[in-house]
Amino acid sequence: MKRTRQYRIDQDLLDRFDRVNEALRQNKSEVIRQLMRKYVEEKEEELKVEVLEIVELRDNFPNNGEAYAVGKAENGNYFFAWGPEYPYADEVPSYNVDDGESGIGHFPTKKHAMEAMKATVDAWETNI
């Protein structure tokens, strides 16, 4: 799904951008998407934190190859992670990821992270 956004760009920069893209016969929207993708990938790497400890791991849950985990990150926060990726990773995003197969939520205390995991496990088991 693609959405429209509006951004303010200095006229001089916009004129130069248009000239270069016209000369190269480039789709301006695709160029912006590529630039954004590269920027996001670089910043996502910079924003990763090391996992210091896995406090609790519920392996192969709710499906084989997936897990629920509570851990502690190098920034001092605790996290609840789920899916096939983040529960097993040595480094995780330092921000919440609520979409996709793998997700992670950060919490100030181990108690809060454990409560989030418990609520999710309970909800899953209730719906079986």
What would you note in describing this structure?
Helices cover 39% and strands 26% of the residues. It is of the alpha+beta class and 128 residues long. The chain folds into two domains: 11-46; 49-126. It has a five-stranded antiparallel sheet. The mean pLDDT is 95.
Entry summary:
With 128 residues, the chain is an alpha+beta fold. It has helices at 11-24, 28-46, 110-126; strands spanning 48-59, 67-73, 78-83, 91-93, 103-107. Strand 2 (67-73) and strand 3 (78-83) form a beta hairpin.
Question: From the alpha-carbon coordinates, what is the Rg to the nearest angstrom?
Answer: 20 Å
Mean pLDDT, all residues: 95
Helix % is: 25-40%
**Number of DSSP strands?**
5
Strand content: 25-35%
Total individual domains: 2
Shape: elongated
Quickly give the structural class: alpha+beta
Oligomer: single chain
Major sheet size, sense and barrel closure: 5 strands, antiparallel
Number of helices, where a helix is a run of at least 4 consecutive DSSP H or I residues: 3
Low-confidence stretches: none
Query: H/E order of the elements?
Result: HHEEEEEH
Task: Report the end-to-end length measured between terminal Cα atoms.
Answer: 31 Å
Q: Which strand order do you get reading across the main beta sheet?
A: 4-1-2-3-5
Jot down its keywords.
5-stranded antiparallel beta sheet, 128 residues, elongated, single chain
Task: Give the topology, please.
Layout: H1 11-24, H2 28-46, E1 48-59, E2 67-73, E3 78-83, E4 91-93, E5 103-107, H3 110-126
Antiparallel strand pairs: 1-2, 1-4, 2-3, 3-5
